[in-house]
Amino acid sequence: MIPPGSGPHGDADHDERPRPRRSTVPAADRARAIARVAATQDGIVARRQLLDLGIPARAIDRRVASGALWRVLPGVYAVGHPALDWRGRARAAMLLCGTGSALVGPSAATLAGLLPERPDAPVHVAPGRGRPRSRPGLVVHRTTLRPEETAVVAGLPVTRPPRTLIDLASSLDDRALRRVVNEAQIRTRTTPRDILDAIDRAPGRRTNRLRKIVVDATGPRRSGLEDALWTALGAAGLTAGARANARIGRWEVDVVWLDDLVAAEVDGFRYHRTRDDRRRDERKAQDIRAGGFDLLRLSDDEVEHEMPRVIASVATALAKARAARRP
Q1: From the CA atom positions of the chain, what is the Rg in Å?
Q2: Would the pTM count as exceeding 0.70?
Q3: Which of 68, 47, 76, 65 is nearest to 137 (CA)?
Q4: H/E element holding 156?
Q5: Mind giving me the DSSP string for 204-263?
Q6: CA-to-CA distance for 7 and 9, rounded, in angstroms?
Q7: CA distances from 254 to 245, 247, 302, 311 (A)
Q8: Which end of the chain is more exposed for a tag (fewer CB within 10 A), N or C?
């Protein structure tokens, strides 16, 4: 998205620092020097970077006028064309806001893979210097970030997942927030303790709902969901021959139909917290299936919000197993 008035003409950027008395980059080499910088920054350069290279301000202005540089934000240019993807716009925002800035909220979640990327989504930034203002496509947040709350992901500074979840808590509904919490634990190895510690360090923030989701997902809610599944199975007439918390070899499984070689496991396969947990889950699944069982892997979200579909999948698995046993 190019702000109104942007383009190859009419650029009114200014830089208050003394300009170099003479160019340190020969005119014939300026395009290559600009390209080298842009290649490491998603096709984006800042005016101050070009001045630091020794490219005169008038030479920069000529490139803007000719369309070799396209102004996307004050003092920030796309090289060669104005068509930017989301990462390019995020990079431009970082260059505008300066050292110490970071992507926050939805933008930090997008870069970490917690939310899907939307090309037209605004970029959310906490600035590190000056007082840049929000504008179409850019939302500036006046917030203070501690050094331990940020990291660099794919070359861009972002808030770490616990802080990102706190920032998202006020804008997502319960279902969406629960999914993002799950994704943070899967993709970034964030633990529930990490999130709860961050909540404790954020007095005054609206974090009660986030705390409840984290506590519920890791505490008594697990057994509650298993109970809910067992109750629903009973109401559907599917508990005949079933055993709860039964063992298959060395593994304990939530619900097992031993005669039918069908098993169901709540939560443990999709939303475990660390890489070691996920490897253990995969070994468990492989062992159970190697024993001839049809294993149904159910997420806590499915059991809580999509129980009719869960019951239908169990009924289908049992019907197939029983049909195969008939002479």
Answers
A1: 27
A2: no
A3: 76
A4: strand 156-159
A5: TSS-HHHHHHHHHHHSTHHHHHHHHHHHHHHHTT--TTEEEEEEETTEEEEEEETTTTEE
A6: 6
A7: 4, 9, 15, 15
A8: C
Backbone torsions φ then ψ of 168, nearest 5 degrees = -80, -20
Is the pLDDT at 34 greater than 50? The verdict is yes
Condensed to tens digits (0 to 9), the pLDDT of residues 248-299 reads: 988 888 899 999 999 998 865 444 455 666 778 888 999 999 999 999 999 8
Structure token digits, residue 191: 């633990």
| Contacts of range 243-251, beta carbons closer than 8 Å, 24 or more positions apart | 248/287, 248/288, 248/291, 248/293, 249/287, 249/288, 249/291, 250/287, 251/284, 251/287, 251/288
Q: Which residue, among 150, 130, 123, 10, has the nearest Cα to 69 in the 3D structure?
A: 10
What token pair was written down for 22?
Answer: 């003479």
Residue 269 CA to its chain's centroid (Å) = 20
Strands 294-298 and 262-266: parallel
**Residue 72 in contact with residue 92, Cβ under 8 Å?**
yes
* 207 pLDDT above the threshold of 70: yes
Which domains can be identified in the chain, with CATH numbers? 1-84 (no CATH), 97-218 (no CATH), 221-325 (3.40.960.10)
**Backbone torsions φ then ψ of 37, nearest 5 degrees:** -65, -45
CB-based contacts of 2: which residues, under 8 Å, 6+ apart? 70, 71, 72, 82
> Can you list the pairs that 31-38 forms with residues at least 24 positions away whose Cβ atoms lie under 8 Å?
31/68, 34/63, 34/69, 34/79, 35/79, 38/79
Query: What does the block give as tokens for 293?
Result: 């069982």
E strand or H helix at 150: strand 150-153
